[in-house]
Amino acid sequence: MVQVHPFRSIRPAAELADKVAALPYDVVNSQEAKAFAADNPYSYFHIDKAEIDLPAELSPYDERVYQQAADNLAAFLEKGWLFKENKAYFYLYELVMSGRSQTGIVACTSINDYIDGKIKKHEFTRHEKEIDRMNHIRTCDANTSPIFLSYRPQEKIQATIKNWQKVHAPVYDFVSYHDVTHRVWVIDQTETIEQLTDLFTKVEALYIADGHHRTESAVKIGLEKRQTGEQNPETEQFLSIIFPEDELAIWEYNRVLKTTPPADFMDRLAENYQVVKTGVKKPEKAGNCQLYDGSAWYTLSIKTEKVPNDPVERLDVALLQKFVLEDIFGIDDIRTDKRIDFVGGIRGTAELEKLVDSGEWKLAFSMYPTQMTDLLDVADAKKIMPPKSTWFEPKLLSGLFLHDLETK
Hints:
InterPro entries: UCP033563 (IPR008323). The protein is α+β, with helices and mostly antiparallel strands. It has helices at about 15-20, 30-35, 45-50, 65-80, 110-115, 125-140, 155-165, 190-200, 210-230, 265-270, 315-325, 350-355, 370-380, and strands spanning about 5, 10, 80-85, 90-95, 100-110, 120, 140-145, 145-150, 170-175, 180-185, 205-210, 235-245, 250, 255, 275, 290, 295-300, 340-345, 365, 390, 400-405.
């Protein structure tokens, strides 16, 4: 029921893949990207965060930044650091972190499938972030970053993927950020390409795991191309990497608060949670979260009668939002309120302790990770998760695959 298409990828020369590949543009700031790219002319940050090659005072959203990205992409192609395939292929992308493997198929997915609700979302997007990626895609004339999609496992798809990995050598095999191993295979046999294309027509839906802004931006550029008469088969598709949901791991997305708690804070917590000083830093099950106040770690266990049946409202992040952030602190919009910040689980509870112990932040909440089944249930119900509900690791690196829109 969904469409996947092989495509002529723009990708790195094999000997440069580890030097080109970079973290996604939206998990590092400009200063971090510049540091990562220092002394590395091959880094994809020169394309994905091209402001690092321009004066520091220039806004990263200045039109000159997008033009610099396009110029750098052209230069990478001219120098042979990147090249475009002669034929349309599928690819496999495996990531191994701490002994845990996940393998996705790299393909183009359909704009119409997204419009028709066959590619399902679970987050709202912000207009200014969409505009940024639209400018990047439009100026580079390419989907410059992949969308991270998932699907409910299909035995025949998994068997086809594992068999290809078993009998073919990867074209890329390297270790990068956080000691993650990255391997890529090219599926270049017509029979296997056709088989996978057919098998995905039996998949009922795809789910955005990460990349809602990239998806909205890619779709809107495709619709724009229809209106301007630049439509072609490539503009009707966007770059995706699609993983079975049972291979994915969502990490916790923790919270820190800058505001001083009220004098009756513990009593108000106890209205909805069982509060016990335990010293435990990470929750052991859903329904629990851990609180650090600078002196001790507490386990907060939600009272059973407080948990609704709604797939969104029952999430731990939603319960904390309602009963703590809103009811106790009056933090209604966590996207904009400066009293709250978010810490990805890969940084660990030591980072939470460091922030609170510094005195700048007053409280930290260590969350139990949202589960993939929760994400799929929310998307199937056409509902939206609270912001900062999911943190995926390992990160899909950018620069290994680009999709040329072929309008220039």
